[in-house]
Amino acid sequence: MSQMYKPLPVEEDAVASRDTSTDHSSDEKFEWRTNKRRTLRSIANSNIAWIIQTAMFSVSVTLFAVTMCSRASENVTKVPTTWSPVNEAIKYEIKHFDLAPIPDGPFVGKGDDVDAMWEWATDGIPDTMVTKSELLKMNMDPTGALEVTDPKTGRHGYRVAIEVFHQLHCLNLLRQANHKAHYAPLGGDTAAEPEDLHGHLDHCIDALRQFVMCQGDTNVFPFRFPFNDGDPWPDYSSPRMCRNFDKIRDWAVEHGVERGVDEPEH
C-alpha cells in the first residue's frame, strides 16, 4: 500500500521562523554596528574639532604674548633721536671702557703721537652740507645760516658741522690746556690771551656739561679691592652700548665739503 508524504507544516514554520529570526538578528547587529560607527565618528570629529580649536587658541595666545613682549621691548630699547643725515651711518656695538686709575693710552698726555691721534679724531674732519629741506627737517631756521657751494660738485646748500667732532675738539682743548707749558709755545688755542683762552675753555666745559647731562648715562660701575693703600677703586669697565665712531668718521670724511675760495672763515 502506497503512502503519500507531505512536508510537515510545523517544520516549515520552524525553518521559516529561524530564517526570519536570523534575518532580524543580522539586521539588528548591522544597525548596531552602523550606529556605533556613527557614534565613534561623531566623537572623533568632536575631538578633532576640539583639538583644532585648542591649537588655534594656543597659537593666538602665543602670538599675542610675543607681540606684547616685542612692543614692551621696543619701548625699553628703542631710543628716540632727532633726525640727522649722519644717522644712516650709525652702527651699535658693545664696548668696555678702558679707564685705569692712572690713565695711559693713545689719547692721553702730550707729544706728537698723541697729537696725531687727536688730529685723526677731530681736527682733520671736514664739515658737511645739507639742503634747505634737511635743515628744516632738523627744526632749524635757515634764515642767516651760512650758504655754500660745494667746490667739487657745484651743489648749493648750508654748511653744517657734526656735533661729535666739536665735542672732541673741546676735549682736545682741555687736554692741551692741561699741558699748557708744552702747547702754548707751539701756538694754537692755548697760546691765546688768558681772557680769550678762559672764555674758550668755559665754552667747551659747558658744551660738554650739557651733552653729558643730556645723555644721562645710566650704566653703573662697582668698586674693587685693592688699590695702592688698599682702598676700593671704581671699576669703569662695565659694558656699554656705543655708536661705532669709525663709521661716523668715515661718513663725515666721505660727505665732507671743502671751504670755497670766497667763503668766510668760521
UniProtKB/TrEMBL annotation:
Coiled coil: none annotated. GO terms for biological process: mycotoxin biosynthetic process. It comes from the Eukaryota. InterPro entries: UstYa-like. The chain crosses the membrane at residues 47-68. The keyword Cytoplasm does not apply. Belongs to the ustYa family. Residues 20-30 have a biased composition (Basic and acidic residues). Keywords: Membrane, Transmembrane, Transmembrane helix. This is Uncharacterized protein. The keyword Glycoprotein does not apply. PANTHER family: CYCLOCHLOROTINE BIOSYNTHESIS PROTEIN O, YALI0B05434P. Pathway: Mycotoxin biosynthesis. Residues 1-30 are annotated as: Disordered.
